[in-house]
Amino acid sequence: MAQIAPAPPAPAQPGAVQSASEFPVPAPPFSANVFPCTGCHDPNLTVNTERRVLRKAHTDIQLRHDEQHRWCLDCHNADNRDVLRSAAGEPIPFAESYRLCGQCHGDKYRDWRAGIHGKRTGEWDGQKSYLLCIHCHNPHTPRFKAVEPMPAPVRAGRVK
Fold first, then answer.
1. Number of neighbours of residue 139 by Cβ within 10 angstroms
2. pLDDT confidence of 102, banded at 50, 70, 90?
3. Could you tell me if residue 145 is inside a domain?
4. What SS3 state is found at 97?
5. What are the Cα distances from residue 112, in Å, to 12, 76, 115, 124, 150?
6. 71 phi and psi angles, rounded to 5 deg
7. How many domains does the chain have?
8. Residue 47 falls within a domain, yes or no?
9. Is 148 inside any structural domain?
C-alpha cells in the first residue's frame, strides 16, 4: 500500500512574524565591551525613563533616526537591558532585531524576508543565512553616507 506524504506547510501569510529559526543570522556586530549591557547597567537600579541627552555614557552615539519622535528607550528595554523592546513592550533578543526594525519599516522587512533587501546567502531551495539590518545600517544613524561617484572606466586599447 502506498504511503501518502504529509502536506507541505502552508506558506507564511504576508506580515506574519517568523520565528528566529526561520531566519538564521550571525551574531549582532556589537562594539567591543558593550554586551551584555548589564555589565554596566545594574538591573537592580531604577531606570531614569525621562527623555534626555546622555552625558556620561554612550556619548559617541548620535541619534539620527526619527530623533524628533524617538529616543533610546523606544527600542532598548528599560526592564532588561540585554534585550530590545517592541512597540508593545515585549522583549526582543538582539539576534532578532529585524522584528524591531520591521515594526516601522514593514516594506523593508517584507523585502528582507524575501531576500530582496539586504544580504542573504545559501541555497535558493534550502538552507539560507540572513544578515541583520544592523550588519549594514547603524541603528542610531541608519542612512548611508553619500558616496562620491568614481570616474567611468577606461576601455583597454583606447587612447584619449
1. 17
2. very high
3. no
4. helix
5. 14, 22, 5, 14, 28
6. -155, 180
7. 1
8. yes
9. no
Range of the domain at 46: 35-135
C-alpha closest to that of 25 among 89, 90, 112: 112
The answer for 89, left when phi > 0, alpha when psi is -120 to 50, beta otherwise, is: left
Nearest to 17 by CA among 90, 119, 123, 77: 90
Output the pLDDT for position 18: 44
The answer to whether residue 8 scores a pLDDT higher than 50 is no
SS3 140: coil
Contact 94, 84 (CB under 8 A): yes
Q: Please, how many CA atoms are within 13 Å of residue 91, restricted to the half-sphere of its CB?
A: 7
Residue 43, SS3 per DSSP: coil
What CA–CA distance (Å, rounded) separates 110 from 92?
18
* Cell numbers for 62: 548620535
Which residues partner with 148 through β-bridges? Answer: none
Alpha helices in the chain (DSSP H): 97-104, 106-114
Q: Which residues pair with 130 in a beta bridge?
A: 120
Mean pLDDT of 131-155: 87
Tens digit of each residue's pLDDT (9 = 90 or more) over 41-54: 899 999 988 888 88
Residue 63 in contact with residue 70, Cβ under 8 Å? Answer: yes
pTM of the model: 0.71
Specify if 87 maps to a domain. yes
